[in-house]
Design brief:
With 280 residues, this protein is an alpha/beta fold. The chain folds into two domains: 52 residues, Spermidine Synthase, Chain: A, domain 2 (Roll); 217 residues, 3-Layer(aba) Sandwich (Rossmann fold), CATH 3.40.50. Helices cover 26% and strands 32% of the residues. It is built from nine helices and twelve strands. The strands form two sheets. The chain has a seven-stranded mixed beta sheet with strand order 8-7-6-9-10-12-11, with helices on both faces. A five-stranded antiparallel beta sheet has the order 1-2-3-4-5. Strand 1 and strand 2 form a beta hairpin. Helix 5 packs across helix 6. The chain starts with 7 loop residues before the first strand and ends with a helix. The structure holds S-adenosylmethionine.
């Protein structure tokens, strides 16, 4: 009797009644670091995928949408982002986008878990490619402590963190954003991934509220993200001045992006009412 070949599926439990599953070819790497379980799987439809503690972080197929939207909207909103800090983001995708900006003189990656960086360098080399840029300095420190020790140092801070659990909890607090304000130079901009407007409305609200007293001007913007819960994601940018709706088409085109453009930037200011209601 012949049996059908066994299928390997990898699933993220995205809610009590919702799972996202991808059929996988093989498990490439699995370990438990000091901070989390790290898993890299080769999937049939989304390429290689990084999971931390059972949640999708990056897939080769859709990561460009997330990394371009987290990096370029705030970077393009600054006239000359020379010093940039990324907190979290150990896969390197956000830094890869940051160093596309020719104005950048130094980009610091402050990732708490050295194993995430090492695993991504090995198994997701294209995503991690920006880490090799000579302008990039990789630090393995807690972003919550690092930010308190650096005043008046950065033009843009990008918070590319995991969900608000474990070591990431402090990255969602008003105290953290007050420290970000102190760490920014005049005209500086902060931007954080702020989870799904469909299923994490509480986090969307929390990020906006935590920024509020330090950053009077905030922009909640959205993008599709097929492998994140609900397939729809949010980002929240904060600044002391209004963020520009229109940005230079030439400067944006020079970034050689696959999702972000000057037109996508402008469209990000159109917020559907259900999402706007989350931050009212
Ligand atoms: N794109 C992803 C997402 O939204 O699911 C985030 C990717 S990135 C891999 C998240 C990183 O944040 C993890 O590698 C984690 O180790 C790091 N992280 C969590 N808390 C941190 C902290 N307090 N300081 C620095 N890095 C932190």
């Amino acid at each position: 009797m012949s049996r059908p070949p066994m299928e390997l599926w990898i699933e993220e439990i995205q809610g009590k009644d919702v799972r996202l599953g991808l059929r996988a070819k093989t498990v490439l790497h699995r370990e438990v670091s000091e901070f989390q379980e790290i898993l890299v799987v080769d999937t049939l439809s989304y390429g290689r995928a990084l999971f931390l503690d059972g949640t999708f972080q990056v897939t080769e197929k859709d990561e460009f949408v997330y990394h371009e939207m987290l990096a370029h909207l705030p970077m393009m909103s600054h006239p000359s982002p020379r010093r940039v800090l990324v907190i979290g983001g150990g896969d390197g995708g956000t830094i890869r986008e940051v160093v596309k900006h020719k104005e950048v003189e130094e980009a610091v990656l402050c990732e708490i878990d050295p194993r995430v960086t090492a695993v991504c360098r090995e198994y997701l080399p294209e995503v991690a490619s920006g880490l090799a840029d000579p302008r990039v300095r990789v630090l393995h420190e807690d972003g919550v402590s690092y930010i308190k020790e650096h005043k008046n140092s950065f033009d843009v801070i990008l918070v590319d963190s995991t969900d608000p659990v474990g070591p990431a909890v402090g990255l969602y607090s008003p105290e953290f954003y007050a420290a970000c304000k102190e760490a920014l130079r005049a005209g500086g901009i902060v931007c954080a991934q702020s989870e799904s407007p469909f299923v994490n409305g509480d986090v969307v609200r929390r990020v906006s509220q935590s920024m509020q007293s330090s950053f009077p001007h905030r922009l909640l913007y959205l993008s599709p993200l097929p492998t994140y819960p609900s397939g729809f994601w949010s980002f929240t940018a904060g600044a002391g001045q209004p963020l520009p709706r229109e940005v230079s088409k030439e400067r944006a085109a020079a970034l050689a992006t696959r999702y972000y453009t000057a037109e996508v930037h402008e469209a990000a200011f159109a917020l559907p009412p259900f999402a706007a209601a989350l931050i009212e």
